[in-house]
Design brief:
Elements lengths: L10 E3 L4 E4 L10 E4 L2 H9 L6 H22 L8 H9 L6 H16 L8 H27 L7 E4 L14 H11 L3 E5 L6 H12 L5 E3 L4 H6 L5 E4 L3 E3 L4 E4 L2 H11 L2 E5 L5 E2 L37 E4 L6 E4 L2 E4 L3 H5 L4
Parallel strand pairs: 4-5, 4-7, 5-6, 7-10, 8-11, 10-13
Antiparallel strand pairs: 1-2, 2-3, 8-9, 9-12, 13-14
The protein binds 5-S-methyl-1-O-phosphono-5-thio-D-ribulose (MRU).
Length: 347
């Protein structure tokens, strides 16, 4: 790995607990909180301190380690009692990113395999959480390599939301492909602002700046004009949940980008690890789209007037597979995704 283009880590596991980089405070300040309980980790996910589908899954895995450590220290003989409730607290933190539920299932399998006479559940669970974390970074590096091949002739790329080191174990999904491709040949990188939480303006631009990759910020509403200008050939995004037919839930605004991209002959790439594919969900229509508090959307001007001004705040949307040119995973790429094409990933 070229470490000069990947210096940020959102989650650090230590003997004290899980260190979480509070993304709400970026880019103004870099503050890590150390969390030692499952409730704190669930709250960190729900309150957007940690965001991005893979990072949420990794945080949840460490949350299970903390839960088991706590249960075991209080009652070594029946540490399993109440553990499923702890997993439920993590599962309730955010609904759309499937990596959260995938990681909990991985941890559940380790818990189930441990015998009641296990001396301590902490070590095997810690080992699994670290393995999930490491595998995510490795997957990102592989996706960076696979995705960059499509960009050899591109002079400009547009990305949406944050999909970099902050949103994953490290390196990033869509931003990982951008890192790999920029490392090979300089390209113009554009990032949308990503209203209302401004992941693009606050996180992507900050992260690229940390790693000395030049990028240009645009308002979300400037994306179609950018495409019309001919300055970008690819839109590259991550995913929070990909259905078995390739329909992709990602940050609100991704669907609009895909429609504009198709109109302008710009290609659309989704980059996500296998842990983001939800094989049990047949199509995007079944994906639960998180709707957050309308107060997040109402600007300072309207604060206090919530009772008279309403706002609708869905934070993800679904891009139909038909508007996606390629899905990149660590197991391979799927061009023109469909139920049948996606199945090749399982082979
Ligand atoms: O609400 P967020 O910030 O958790 O949403 C993040 C996104 O939508 C990302 O694009 C997605 O999780 C992919 S992250 C590699």
């Amino acid at each position: 790995m070229n470490s000069s283009v990947d210096t940020v880590r959102p989650l650090v596991w230590t003997h004290q607990g899980l260190e979480v980089l509070d993304q709400r405070r970026l880019p103004d300040e870099v503050v890590y909180h150390t969390y030692q309980s499952v409730d704190q980790v669930a709250e960190a996910i729900a309150s957007m301190q940690v965001r991005g589908a893979p990072a949420i899954g990794i945080a949840a895995a460490y949350g299970v380690v903390l839960a088991a450590r706590d249960r075991f220290s209080r009652n070594p003989l029946s540490w399993r009692d109440g553990l499923e409730t702890d997993l439920g607290v993590l599962a309730a933190s955010r609904p759309t990113a499937v990596n959260l539920f995938w990681a909990l299932d991985r941890m559940r399998a380790v818990i189930a395999a441990l015998s009641d006479s296990s001396p301590n559940p902490f070590e095997p669970l810690e080992k699994e959480a670290i393995a999930i974390h490491k595998a995510d970074i490795e997957a990102n590096l592989m996706m960076g390599h696979l995705g960059a091949r499509y960009l050899q002739n591109a002079s400009g790329i547009l990305t949406h939301c944050n999909t970099g080191s902050l949103a994953t174990g490290g390196y990033g999904t869509a931003l990982g492909v951008i890192r790999s491709s920029v490392a090979e040949r300089a390209k113009a990188v554009y990032a949308t602002e990503t209203r209302p939480w401004s992941q693009g303006a606050r996180l992507t631009i900050w992260e690229l700046n940390q790693d000395k990759i030049p990028a240009t910020l645009i308002a979300d509403s400037a994306a179609a004009l950018l495409m019309q200008s001919g300055r970008v050939q690819w839109v590259i995004v991550g995913a929070d949940r990909i259905a078995a037919n390739g329909d992709t839930a990602n940050k609100i605004g991704t669907y609009a980008l895909s429609v504009a991209a198709r109109h302008h002959g710009v290609k659309m790439m989704v980059v996500a690890p296998m842990s983001t594919i939800d094989w049990k969900t047949a199509s995007g229509q079944e994906i639960h789209i998180e709707e957050r508090d309308s107060a997040e959307l109402l600007s300072e001007k309207f604060r206090g007037k919530e009772s008279v001004i309403s706002a609708w705040n869905p934070v993800f949307d679904v891009t139909p597979a038909g508007l996606i040119d390629v899905i990149v995973t660590e197991k391979g790429v799927v061009e023109n995704p469909s139920m049948e094409a996606m199945r090749h990933l399982l082979g």
